[in-house]
Structure formats: structure tokens, C-alpha cells
């Protein structure tokens, strides 16, 4: 049977599709397909492995007749509905569509077209996210609804839309993000990180995106592939960047390769359901048992998220090539790697090298939600901690400074308590190859909002924000933090509430100054002032850090380079405190004045500095 017309339209719609009916639908798990969806001429690695899915394709002989495309090897697997093809693409190959013909004696040919694209030399992509950036983290379903027509998609496993329930979809989408890019740019944001946007066609809680059922399709309830690419383009027009959230470790139970596996060990299989232990220590514990290590990495994250067997070459290629595809197609600039510690370490090291070989400027940081500085550092490249392998992971989401800044404002000052925890965490930066690449944060979609952690004390809250935008590393702000959104994580899940004003008919629009109350505007102005200052002053991006041992609850640190010196003073106690400036002569040198960045006035610094309780000040020394 001839399949060419169907596949030609399928490829066109998924790669270039816009608002057509198909692009607004879920793909059926039994639809024939080829992954990657398309490829490019002129890649550094000329070889691509196609995974072909079609009824009885595994018994057939494939043929390709296209100049510059060589079918190097054919791999047959257990499931006769799959075939893996290794293609070598010459750099001079002409871009365009060609047919892959699958023949078998006595049967009609199966003809499946495949598209090679020309790389766009003008397209911005893989720029990398560095300590010059300020990241804004968005859960798309909860940020803004720019296109109500995609709120409910026919044929999806979940069609409920209930904004009054935190576990159903609310209707936020990519268009809603695009509509508010100027709001983010005005605030000083330079990079946007979205929680996963791939199709998440699960029966419940499909809004968060961490249980993908497709690798090459944006969830139709969020938009289309073309709209995601438009988001990247709109960001780049504003000198901003796009971070894609990746999940290597698992997929959703409704993923099409789980519904019909290519071979028996496509997943990490167990005789009976086995959950991961979440015990990262066993991965580097010199006394750990092999069974504990296996449970940690091969156990399933939750029953609805099957654990992928990353030790097979077919799985490795399937995952890695999909990530390269999104860089090349959409213009992604950086990756955040979910549940990093649960992956196969050897594969992740290979993944990092493959990505960096293709895109030397590409950056990626892994989620290492662990307790302990060495626990975290062991996952990063070039760590000074003795490792039997190099992960090649450039950076992590810095949970150790996150834990420490929480303790700074929730514990009394002590030898190992309060702000001394923060001092000690940063004092241990020697364990990293480059700690300035780590992503620092006060909260995210998985933890309680910082405002609630500090008891809704605005002075503590603003002090935390001050630290976030002046310490080393890449600062990340969770959506709504700039308008003092609050609440705790599970069991109520209210850290994922909607951004007020993102939906037509919202009573208040907090994207606008007139929609915010005085406290919300105070916090917004605080964030904006520091973010803009940071954006225009390299000293807070790439400058060196010098910190002084906290005394009496006062923490002082400096960011400095050859052009500027900035002094940050934090009073982490409830009472007014004064500090003598002569203790800091090493960095203050002959400076006697400072420009107060937040108060926008000059201050005398001759003898001492006085701060109210739970406040912080940022002084550009002059």
C-alpha cells in the first residue's frame, strides 16, 4: 500500500504546521512514524539513526535512492513493527524530501517520505545560558492563556479544564508567554525556562509536562511546534534566550513506545513494580550494594512514569537525537535536565559530549535535588571530589545554597546555623570546576514559595531577592515571585497557582502596575531595580566574590572586578545593627562613599554602616 500522501502531510504539519486541524490534535499511539521527525544536511555528525514504526516493517528490505544519503546499516529488533536505519548524510546532499521504500516479495511496497532540511545560518540557537543571564521559570499552563481555542483538545485522555482545581489543566499556553515577553524584558529577564512543553497525553495531572508521550510534538493544549519556534524567535528579537526542560529518565505510561515497545528491555523492567529509592548517596557510596544502586537508577520514579533503559544504543540515539532536533528546529539556547541523578551516568556523560560536539556554545544544568554539598558536586564535571567517571555536566540547580538561604532567615544566628549555613555553602565552592555556572534560586515549581517560608516577612523576602541577584551563579526567579506570590508545596500544591491577569476575565491584572497593590509593586520594583542593575553591570555577572565570616548575624560580601566593587551587607537578625567598616578594608580600600543601588542615593561609609532588622543593602563603592 502507498503511504506517501499521508506521511508527506504528517511531516509538513508537524514541522511547519500552524493552526491546522491536525496540529490541534493528539497523535494516536499506533500511527506509523519515523523518528527523528526530520533531519538536516551539514551536521557535525553526518550519521543519524531513524526509528521506523509501521505494521510489519521489520520484515521488509528498505531502500533509499537519494544522492548523498547512504543507508549504512539496518537493525532488526524483536518487534516486527520496528526497524532502525543508520543513515550517513554527505555534507553536499541537496535538501528536500526523498522516499524510503520498504519491500517484501509478494506484497505492495510501503513508501515513507523523509525530509532533509538546510540549516539556517542566520538562526540564533544554542547560544548558551551563562552567569550574565537572569532566568525566569514559567509553568506554561499556569502563566497566561493567550489562545482559549486550544484549552480542550478532542481525543486527549484528559479533557477537563478546571481553574479552581490545582490538579487539572487551567489553559495557559505558549501564546500567553509570547504575549508577556515585553513584561519580562522590562523586568530585566534575559532567559525564559518553561516546564516541559512536549505532548503529555496522560489521563490526569497532564498539565506539568513531566510525563511526555511524544518527543517531536508540542502539546496541542500549549500550542504547536511552529508556535514554540516563534517563541524562540520572539525571545531572540529581544536579546533573550529559551531554555528547554528535558526529561531523560522517564516518559509517561501512555508514550507510544511504551504502549508498543520495540524490544523487551526498552524500559527498566522488574518482576514486580519497583520504585526508585530516591537515595542519591548510593551512587557514590564506596560501601553501597549493587542492588541499592540499581533500585536508585532503574526503579521507576512513580508508577505512571516508566523508567527508560538508557544502556541500549537505540534508546540513547532516540533520546539524544530528539534534543538535537529541538535545538536545530526551534533555536533552543540551553537545557535544564530533570531528575538528573536518576539517569544512567555513562549515558549522560556521552549525551553531554554529543551535544557539546554539535553545539560547542550550548549549556545545560541538571536538577540535583539532594542534601549535602558533596552529594551535589559529585554530579558536576571536573569536580575535585574523587569520581570514577566525569559526568561532563556543566552545572546544577544549586539546592545547597537554596537550603542555606532558607536557613538564613528561618534559624537563629549560630556557629552552624542561620546565615553561617549560607557562608559555609559558598565556602565549599572549591569542589566545583566552575561554581559560577550553577543556577541559584529561592523557589521553583516543586518547593514552597520563599515568601511563605519566611513567614511573609517582606524585609526577609526582599533580602532573599537581594541575595539572589547579587551572589555568584545564574539567578532564577519563579513566576510570580516578583509580585510576592505565596503558598506552600504539597499537599495543597498552591505553588502552581495561576498568575493573576493571565486569563481574560481575571478581576485583577498583576502584569500591570495599576493591577498590583502597594506591597506587590514594592516587591516588583525591588526585583526590577536589581535585575536591571545586574544586567548593566558586569561586576554582578562575572565579578569575583569575596565573603567575610558572619558576625553577630551580619553577613558581608563583595562582588568585584577591575572596573567596580560592589558591597552587599545583610542583617539577618530582627534588630538594628551597625558594623564598623575598617574590618572590610581589604576590599573597601580607600572608598569612603557608596551608591545605594536600592535607595538610589549616595551614602557615607567612613566609620560604620547601620541596617534595620532583616534588611540588605547593595552599595557600589565610590
Shape: globular
CATH homologous superfamily annotation of the largest domain: Glycosidases
CATH architecture of the largest domain: Alpha-Beta Barrel
Rg result: 26 Å
CATH fold group of the largest domain: TIM Barrel
- Widest beta sheet: strand line-up: 14-13-12-11-10-9-16-15
DSSP strand (E) fraction? Answer: 15-25%
Distance between the termini: 78 Å
Q: What's the mean pLDDT score?
A: 95
Which class of the largest domain in CATH terms?
Alpha Beta
How many strands appear in the DSSP assignment? 24
Q: Could you say how many structural domains there are in total?
A: 3
Biggest sheet layout: 8 strands, parallel
What is the helix fraction of residues, given as a range? 10-25%
SS summary, helix count: 15
- Low-confidence sequence ranges: 1-22
Signal peptide: 1-23
Pfam family, one: Cyc-maltodext_C
Keywords: Glycosidase, Hydrolase, Signal
GO biological process, one term: carbohydrate metabolic process
In words, what does this structure look like?
The chain folds into 3 domains: 4-118, Sandwich (Immunoglobulin-like), CATH 2.60.40.10; 135-536, Alpha-Beta Barrel (TIM Barrel), CATH 3.20.20; 544-621, Sandwich (Immunoglobulin-like). Helix content is 23%, strand content 21%. It has 15 helices and 24 strands. The strands form 5 sheets. The chain has an 8-stranded parallel sheet. A 6-stranded antiparallel sheet has the order 17-18-19-24-21-22. Helix 7 (313-330) runs parallel beside helix 8 (345-358), helix 10 (399-408) packs antiparallel against helix 11 and helix 13 runs parallel beside helix 14 (518-535). The longest helix has 18 residues, at 313-330. It is globular and about 95 Å long. InterPro entries: Cyc-maltodext_N (IPR015171), Cyclo-malto-dextrinase_C (IPR019492), GH (IPR017853), GH13_cat_dom (IPR006047), Glyco_hydro_b (IPR013780), Ig-like_fold (IPR013783), Ig_E-set (IPR014756). Pfam families: Alpha-amylase, Cyc-maltodext_C, Cyc-maltodext_N.
Amino acid at each position: 500500500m502507498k503511504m506517501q500522501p499521508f506521511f508527506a502531510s504528517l511531516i509538513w504539519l508537524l514541522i511547519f504546521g500552524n493552526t491546522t486541524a491536525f496540529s490541534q490534535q493528539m497523535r494516536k499511539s499506533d500511527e506509523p512514524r519515523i523518528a527523528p521527525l526530520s533531519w538536516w544536511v551539514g551536521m557535525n555528525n553526518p550519521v543519524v539513526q531513524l526509528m521506523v514504526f509501521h505494521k510489519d516493517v521489520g520484515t521488509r528490505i528498505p531502500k533509499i535512492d537519494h544522492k548523498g544519503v547512504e543507508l549504512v546499516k539496518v537493525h532488526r529488533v524483536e518487534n516486527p513493527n520496528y526497524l532502525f536505519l543508520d543513515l550517513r548524510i554527505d555534507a553536499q546532499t541537496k535538501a528536500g524530501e526523498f522516499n524510503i521504500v520498504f519491500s517484501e516479495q509478494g506484497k505492495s511496497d510501503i513508501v515513507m517520505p523523509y525530509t532533509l532540511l538546510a540549516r539556517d545560518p542566520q538562526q540564533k540557537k544554542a547560544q548558551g545560558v551563562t552567569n550574565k543571564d537572569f532566568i525566569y521559570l514559567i509553568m506554561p499552563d499556569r502563566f497566561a492563556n493567550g489562545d482559549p481555542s486550544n484549552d480542550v483538545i478532542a481525543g486527549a485522555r484528559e479533557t477537563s479544564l478546571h481553574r479552581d482545581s490545582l490538579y487539572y489543566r487551567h489553559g495557559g499556553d505558549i501564546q500567553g508567554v509570547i504575549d508577556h515577553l515585553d513584561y519580562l524584558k522590562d523586568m530585566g529577564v534575559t532567559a525564559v525556562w518553561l516546564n516541559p512543553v512536549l505532548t503529555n497525553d496522560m489521563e490526569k495531572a497532564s498539565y506539568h509536562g513531566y510525563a511526555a508521550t511524544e518527543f517531536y510534538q508540542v502539546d496541542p493544549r500549549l500550542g504547536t511546534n511552529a508556535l514554540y519556534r516563534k517563541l524562540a524567535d520572539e525571545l531572540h528579537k529581544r536579546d533573550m534566550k529559551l531554555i528547554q526542560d528535558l526529561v531523560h529518565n522517564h516518559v509517561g505510561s501512555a508514550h507510544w513506545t511504551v504502549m508498543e515497545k520495540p524490544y523487551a528491555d526498552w524500559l527498566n523492567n522488574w518482576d514486580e513494580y519497583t520504585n526508585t529509592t530516591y537515595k542519591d548517596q548510593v551512587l557514590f557510596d564506596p560501601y553501597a550494594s549493587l542492588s541499592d544502586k540499581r533500585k536508585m537508577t532503574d526503579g521507576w520514579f512513580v508508577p505512571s512514569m516508566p523508567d527508560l533503559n538508557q544502556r541500549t544504543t537505540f534508546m540513547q540515539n532516540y533520546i539524544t537525537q530528539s534534543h538535537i532536533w529541538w535545538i536545530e528546529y526551534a533555536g533552543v539556547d540551553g537545557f535544564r535536565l530533570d531528575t538528573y541523578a536518576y539517569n544512567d551516568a555513562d549515558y549522560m556523560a556521552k549525551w553531554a559530549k554529543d551535544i557539546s560536539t554539535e553545539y560547542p556554545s550550548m549549556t545545560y544544568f541538571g536538577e540535583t535535588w539532594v542534601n549535602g554539598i558533596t552529594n551535589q558536586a559529585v554530579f558536576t564535571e571536573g569536580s575535585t571530589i574523587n569520581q570514577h567517571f566525569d559526568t561532563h555536566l556543566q552545572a546544577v540547580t544549586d539546592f545547597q545554597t537554596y537550603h542555606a538561604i532558607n536557613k538564613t532567615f528561618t534559624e537563629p544566628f549560630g556557629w552552624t546555623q542561620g546565615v553561617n549555613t549560607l557562608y559555609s555553602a559558598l565556602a565549599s565552592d572549591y569542589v566545583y570546576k566552575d561554581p559560577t555556572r550553577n543556577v541559584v534560586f529561592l523557589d521553583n515549581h516543586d518547593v514552597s514559595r520563599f515568601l511563605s517560608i519566611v513567614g511573609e516577612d517582606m524585609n526577609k523576602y526582599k533580602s532573599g531577592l537581594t541575595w539572589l541577584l547579587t551572589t555568584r551563579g545564574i539567578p532564577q526567579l519563579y513566576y510570580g515571585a516578583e509580585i510576592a506570590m505565596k503558598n506552600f508545596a504539597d499537599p495543597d500544591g498552591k505553588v502552581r497557582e495561576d498568575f493573576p491577569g493571565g486569563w481574560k476575565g481575571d478581576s485583577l491584572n498583576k502584569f500591570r502596575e495599576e493591577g498590583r497593590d502597594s506591597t506587590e509593586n514594592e516587591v516588583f520594583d525591588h526585583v526590577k531595580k536589581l535585575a536591571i542593575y545586574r544586567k548593566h553591570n558586569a561586576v554582578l555577572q562575572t565579578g569575583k566574590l569575596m565573603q567575610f565570616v558572619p558576625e553577630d548575624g551580619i553577613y558581608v560580601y563583595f562582588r568585584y572586578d577591575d572596573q567596580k566593587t560592589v558591597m552587599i551587607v545583610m542583617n539577618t537578625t530582627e534588630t538594628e545593627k551597625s558594623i564598623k567598616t575598617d574590618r572590610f578594608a581589604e576590599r573597601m580600600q580607600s572608598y569612603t562613599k557608596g551608591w545605594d543601588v536600592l535607595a538610589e542615593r549616595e551614602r557615607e561609609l567612613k566609620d560604620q554602616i547601620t541596617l534595620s532588622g532583616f534588611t540588605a543593602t547593595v552599595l557600589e563603592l565610590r
